[in-house]
Amino acid sequence: MRAAVLTSQGDPNVLAIQEHYTKPQLSTDHGVLVKVKAIAISSADLMTRRGFTAGPVITPPKIIGSECIGIVEAVSKELERLDDQVMETLDGLHGAKYRVGDVVVGLMGGMGRSLDGCYAEYVALPPRCLSAPLTMLNATSLPMTSDSSPSFGLLAAIPGAFLAAHGILIKSLQVQSTDTLLVQGGSSAVGMAIASISKGLCGLNKIIGTTRSQDKVTKMKAAGFDTVVVLPREAIPSPAKELAGIVKEKGGELSGFTAIIDLIGATNVPVSLLCANLSGGSRVCMAGMLAGAYHFEEPFSPMGIVSVRTY
């Protein structure tokens, strides 16, 4: 099969197209063989390619890639024998049985790290990396593109970003209708997903997002942001207090925000902490690493950033 293989770690040139890479085999631990129709390239993939990972070190050669959509090509005998038993899949516990021809989403769960990923024609995965079969779709009933071909590419771009957005809003921050929500790095895929679902999901009246690019403002507002704060590119890195002041002033919340999602990462968390409403009840969730940093700069002291009278 064809595969984009990580030969070392660095810029995009370290990915080499190999025409005759060994096709994955089914096993007890990798029970569903998926013919990959489209992939989504996530920031986690980019970090893995560059050699920055929070988990086990990746040793090339390796097929990376953690988000895809495809069609079930084969199912192991072990999974076929499960029949009506409940199995743990990407989106919860299901009694669904995988069958050849099912459309499925593959996402995370070790893809591209502990497991070979989806930058290939085929990937063999355990159910924990897969959605339950998308029974409302099949290879002939997918939305069509202008050239009358199935729009797998569009579908591949949706699950990862929206699953992350839902988890951040509901499970992590538990956003309520009374919150003032700030999304740092709002022009990212996850940021745009948050903007598009947070009002309907959480009943919010206003969502503020930040970006470094004036060119992205129109698309961000179309996605659902009410106010977009464009931060100065020339001031990178800027003092945290200066950036926080800009965000609060232009975002129309001088007293700060009660729910803050930071998709930029460790280097920006001090700014997000300073954007919090310190009267109480504010939550800050770091849920991304767009700036490319996994770790906080030492020393990192949250109580040294916010008021010592704030608990």
Automatic annotation (TrEMBL):
GO molecular function annotations of the record: NADPH binding; oxidoreductase activity, acting on NAD(P)H
SUPFAM superfamilies documented for this protein: GroES-like, NAD(P)-binding Rossmann-fold domains
Keywords, comma-separated and alphabetical: NADP, Oxidoreductase
Domain of life: Eukaryota
Domain Alcohol dehydrogenase-like N-terminal: 29-129
Gene3D superfamilies documented for this protein: Medium-chain alcohol dehydrogenases, catalytic domain (3.90.180.10), NAD(P)-binding Rossmann-like Domain (3.40.50.720)
Keyword NADP: yes
InterPro entries reported in the protein's UniProt record: ADH-like_N (IPR013154), GroES-like_sf (IPR011032), NAD(P)-bd_dom_sf (IPR036291)
Alphabetized PANTHER family for the sequence: QUINONE OXIDOREDUCTASE PIG3 (PTHR48106:SF18), QUINONE OXIDOREDUCTASE PIG3-RELATED (PTHR48106)
The protein, known as: Protein YIM1
Organism: Lachnellula willkommii
Source species taxonomy: Eukaryota, Fungi, Dikarya, Ascomycota, Pezizomycotina
